[in-house]
Amino acid sequence: MELNLKPAFFWPINSTSVRSFKFSTKLFSQRAIFRLLSQVAPRQAVERAIRVMLTPPRQPFSDAELAVLEEASLLPVPLISGRLIGWRWGRAADPAVVLVHGWGGRGTQLRGFIEPLLERGFSVVAYDAPGHGMTGGAESSLPHFLQGLNAVLDHLGTVHAIVGHSLGGAVAAMAMAQRPAVKRAVLIAPPASLADSSRRIAAALQWPEALRATVQRRIEYRFGLNWSAFEAEQARGAQPLLVIHDRQDREVPFSEGRRHLNNWPRARLLETSGLGHRRVLEDATVIQATADFIAGDQP
Length: 299
Hints:
The chain has about 300 residues and is an alpha/beta fold. Helices cover about 40% and strands about 15% of the residues. An eight-stranded mixed β-sheet has the order 1-2-4-3-5-6-7-8, with helices on both faces.
């Protein structure tokens, strides 16, 4: 699986030239730092690169996000290392749909799906993964994300479906493969390879391959997990699955969504164009297709 790890300084860019200039300057600066450290202080280069890999970007909540939280019930979820902050919309007695955000995101980024799911008779649960949003924490990773989702599923007991975006889609597939009681899932722009993600980050920062490979080995050793275990082909279940991916997604290539589609026996694809990696969460057709699929209708 791919983490879709954006370095801590990779903040979403709007159309203004000032923001773009700041982004370009920061990226250039980071490239120069890694180039220098790789030559004169390789150990420091590795430590800095690991921090980049494990540090999600943080952003303040928007007014729209805070407003939708006012309509929810707080749902703290216990973790071995503390607790997750989650929320529930609707009645606890109704079948639950869990929303899982991506790297650097928050549960409220999927707020557009809440009302359509409530209208179809579901309750909706969203949460902030470790290292993200109101849950907080200094670092995060794919294992953190998977631990968080499993904690939420265990806490809820019975869950009808999962909707995951980006890294959230990848861990949703992994959880579904181990939990046949979860009836169906929607994966939106799901990455398919952790190793490929690290190569895209390395290319963006102009890391030497030796540095990238060393970072991979160090992180594998730290978590006791081989990255080959996080390829899409390692997670397969029998439940119906809907994969939604945009052709112009520049963060997670469309081909990675195809890998999930080809790997999952009962998967189908909804292909979009021009929405990219994030605006796909706000598209009315995507939202309706997701709600219909979760309800068992044809999207």
